[in-house]
UniProtKB/TrEMBL annotation:
It comes from Pleuronectes platessa. It catalyses: ATP + (ribonucleotide)n-3'-hydroxyl + 5'-phospho-(ribonucleotide)m = (ribonucleotide)n+m + AMP + diphosphate. It comes from the Eukaryota. Its cofactor is Mn(2+); Mg(2+). Its EC number is 6.5.1.3. GO terms for molecular function: ATP binding; RNA ligase (ATP) activity. Functions as an RNA ligase, in vitro. The ligation reaction entails three nucleotidyl transfer steps. In the first step, the RNA ligase reacts with ATP in the absence of nucleic acid to form a covalent ligase-AMP intermediate and release pyrophosphate. In step 2, the ligase-AMP binds to the nucleic acid and transfers the adenylate to the 5'-PO4 terminus to form an adenylylated intermediate. In step 3, the RNA ligase directs the attack of the 3'-OH on the 5'-phosphoanhydride linkage, resulting in a repaired 3'-5' phosphodiester and release of AMP. Keywords: ATP-binding, Ligase, Nucleotide-binding, RNA repair. This is RNA ligase 1. Pfam families: RLIG1. The keyword RNA-binding does not apply. GO terms for biological process: response to reactive oxygen species; RNA repair. PANTHER family: CHROMOSOME 28 C12ORF29 HOMOLOG, RNA LIGASE 1.
């Protein structure tokens, strides 16, 4: 099996999907829903899905580690999207034909500009030297995360390019039920993709909100806060299921309802030939987020000994280093002193 965690393209659903013309539960601006049918995707069968590794789909933003300026760098996901006129033409075609197949793009004129440092993702098809869009009309790609770019400040918070390390959350080697926060050399993450998760990413879905009917008060218990945001990277494919659910539509839906291990955004299957397949709760008509997540409820230890040598440093590395050697019963309990 090739190295896990190469998420360069949109991952197809493990089931055959269909489009329903009703409000999306995932995106407010989307007036249609993509739902799973009970038929297993032929791609999954061809890739021997029954022998695949089932891992937790984490809810954050995708990142990639590769070279930039001769050194290992973190790159942020940036899909090149069509301009307003082209998008309007594309949507009209989709509505008329109920499909994107056959639509013709003028790649030179139809797409918004991107930074000069932008690169297309792996396996993006090219025509006449130009990267071509996928079925959604997007060209997946990456831009390097540089310290002076405010747009990627939360990406930057988990990086120290001078030392060449990143803050990574991963299962502990000798106890996969426990997580650990460590500083990992970017050189050791080369050509991997990872998920940036935390306080200011994707609305912080790992922030548990509970309403008390009696006191009408709101209690927040999640990853960090506005004053003390918490972020880290998680390698794709690193969080495995102890007991993977069966690949049967009805049984899988029941698993999401009943199993304690199912309080997750979804599942990603890593097949031995490198094929990736997924199922999201929204594919099954289920809510996300929905109460306390399994991920946020796992115990965690912090191991950053010797990472920070400057006592005047005031960043995320310093905050975690101050907790070096500490363990918490839940990831949600990791908070820094005021």
């Amino acid at each position: 099996m090739r190295r896990l965690g190469s998420v360069q393209q949109k991952i197809p659903c493990v089931f055959v999907t269909e489009v329903k013309e009703e409000q999306s539960r995932k995106r407010e601006s989307q007036q249609f829903r993509v739902v799973a049918t009970e038929q297993v995707n032929p791609v999954a069968l061809e890739a021997d899905i029954d022998c695949a590794l089932a891992t937790e789909k984490l809810d954050g933003t995708c990142c990639y580690v590769t070279l930039y300026k001769g050194q290992p760098y973190l790159w942020a996901r940036l899909d090149r999207k069509p301009n307003k006129q082209a998008e309007k033409r594309f949507k009209k075609y989709q509505h008329t034909h109920r499909s994107a197949k056959g639509f013709t793009w003028n790649v030179e004129e139809d797409f918004r500009t991107v930074p000069e440092t932008w690169i297309p993702a792996h396996q993006v098809k090219h025509h006449n030297g130009y990267p071509m869009p996928d079925d959604l009309g997007h060209i997946p790609g990456w831009v390097p995360v540089e310290k002076d770019n405010k747009q990627y400040c939360w990406h930057s918070s988990v990086l120290d390019y001078e030392v060449g390390v990143a803050l990574v959350l991963r299962p502990k080697a000798n106890d996969e039920d426990m997580l650990e926060i460590v500083a990992v050399l970017l050189a050791d993450l080369m050509e991997q993709t990872l998920e940036l998760i935390g306080t200011n990413v994707n609305g912080n879905p790992y922030d548990l909100v509970e309403l008390s009917v009696v006191s009408v008060s709101v209690a927040r218990d999640g990853l960090g806060s506005k004053k003390q945001p918490v972020h880290f990277l998680v390698s794709h494919g690193s969080v495995k299921f102890r007991t993977p659910p069966p690949l049967d539509f009805k049984q899988l839906r029941s698993w999401f309802h009943e199993c304690p291990e199912s309080r997750v955004e979804g599942i990603v299957w890593h097949c031995s030939d490198g094929t990736l397949l997924k199922v999201h709760r929204h594919h099954l008509g289920l809510k996300w987020p929905d109460g306390e997540s399994c991920f946020g409820n796992r115990s965690v230890g912090i191991h950053l000994d010797g990472t920070v040598e400057d006592n005047n440093r005031r960043d995320l590395f310093a905050s975690f280093s101050a907790l070096n050697g500490c363990s918490f019963s839940r990831l949600q309990d990791v908070h820094f002193d005021p």
